[in-house]
Amino acid sequence: MNDPVDVLIIGAGASGAAVAWSLAETRMHILCMEQGGWANPAEYPSTGRDWEARFYGDYSPSPNIRARPEDYPINDDNSPIKVVNFNGVGGSTIMYTAHFPRLHPSDFRVKTLDGVADDWPIGYDTLAPFFAENDRMMGVSGLAGDPAFPPTEPPMPPLPLGRSGALLGKAMNRLGWHWWPSDTTVATTDYEGRARCINLGHCTPGCAQGAKASTDITYWPVALRAGIELRTHCRVREIATNEHGMASGAVYYDKDGVEQFQPAEVVIIACNGVGTPRLLLNSVSGRFPDGLANSSGLVGRNLMFHPYAQVYGYVEEPTDSNRAPPTCLWSKEFYETDRSRDFVRGYAIQFGRGVGPVMEAVMSEAMGILPWGADHHRVFRKLNGHRLTASAICEDLPEAHNRVTLDPVLKDSHGIPAPRVDYTIGENSAKMLEHGIARGKEILAAAGATDICVNSPIPYGGWHLLGTARMGTDPERSVVNEWGRSHDVKNLFIVDGSVFVTSGGVNPTSTIQAIALYIADQMKQRLANLFDWGRSCPRKILFQAANAAIWPLSPP
Amino acid sequence: MMIPASTKYDVPGADDAAIQADIVATLSRDAAVVAQALDHLANLAGQPLAELDAVRREAIAREFRATGSGAAATLVRVVLQCYYRDDRVVRSLGLELRPPFPRGYALEQGDWSLLDPVKARPSMWRRAP
Fold it and tell me: pTM to 2 decimals?
């Protein structure tokens, strides 16, 4: 058996890295286990001539297509939106676009403001300092002063508008609609050891330049220097519990496939909105027959994606195409609830600069606008390098029937039951998608675009996995409390997108990481009574905390 | 049939030997699905496609694309991803024969004064209690 650790973190992605870094100052023995390995930027697609083709293979965002040894299969046949992710140190920050908005203040109060879903037990103001800390750690580029959002101070200037941004900005001005350069974690200046962006363009499947922030190059190097242990290629099967109903550690398979047990005083789960419910549902025992932390029956329920309505078209002028980061502008014109519409809540619009030739050919052929035969070449030259995109990213309200369960048949390479996703797009989201499509067409028309195409919902658009272990103050209506601790298991914490109460209408990584930092801060502040047991908190943890001199603690 | 050679654009067709070799060499995980697609195509044609007249070939091609679902899409994607990375084709498009890294590309700043009317807008985010 392995030596016990004070804190075991499962998952080394966006939230696992942030919580590890924040807890490092406690000097506790903290171990993070990650089912994948370290990415090698020299092997990222943008380093080779087959850079686009690999998006359909070993760098596909879909784990079912990518099918690397560290990936687990997901049965998402019963969902119009397929799950996409990346498994490895850095998690899905390796394979995200680096678009980095925050949830709005109104997103935390949807019940109060609009009478739907539930309010969060925390608000924007609570998270504000952690957003700022995360912006500094990840390295955010952006422009202060957006009238659609509370004041922020991005540490780096925004990405250039480029040709695409200017065309889109002019179109939005013609319509009189809000737009703003996106906050992004692409470094526009040299930043904390990272080189500035040189416009490789193919940002999503890993940045060979290291300009795009992924936690393997932001949080992890600092956390490792501070003494956190990171053990890769370890796949956790289940969280074990003791006779007191407390988490005692994790059963996992090591890099050689050997079953091991890792004892721990505290367990923190950071496995995303599909991986986390999967792990909890696989952690069945006599005391927890329906899965761990699941007395509410809500583990796996209320799965929220962000349904995306992608609208694109082609202008006569050349666009930035693949020669710039895809992240460009956002619009919040339709973000907040407008009672004159037939839906509540709203959506952001995320603008894209264009794509490379292979992707252009594949998408246009599939859409029926790129013919086979003699006219193929003429049409392709009209399309390639002339695309503009506007995508509505719609707030998805929580619905209990949208859920993650365990597939009765499908298993991963270690024989662990795989997740099954059952999801339908709700009526409110469907109306929002239609609204977003109509507005997208208006924007592209205002930009002078023709051959306008619609891709809604984006099938392989399940980037944002939220809500499957929601936070709340009522143990019957939530899985974790307002600072991330399981209602049922008092030394078990969840810090990933599972804890979202509602989804907002923006990419969630910034908010996920702010929540992870907030929960870590709460743990540090409450360490003397972390499990509500006062002096029963593990003696070793308190001793180290006192030695670290970051809390006014008395030894037990 | 899918992408013919063109003297106007100085490009080979997708049936070019080098492109076909690239397709075969890089099929890997797509091989089984592409085989399904080719079987479907053969069933539709009923005889070697090349032996059909042009009109019939085009009709078969349209039917294949309409009824071949994911397998047909995979076959088409494999052809396109190899075709549009062939040096002759990339050159014809006016693109450089290199991967994005390490040289990258230049991105112009654009006209930031376009943002002035947006900056002039009053605050529009919704306050929450």
Answer: 0.96
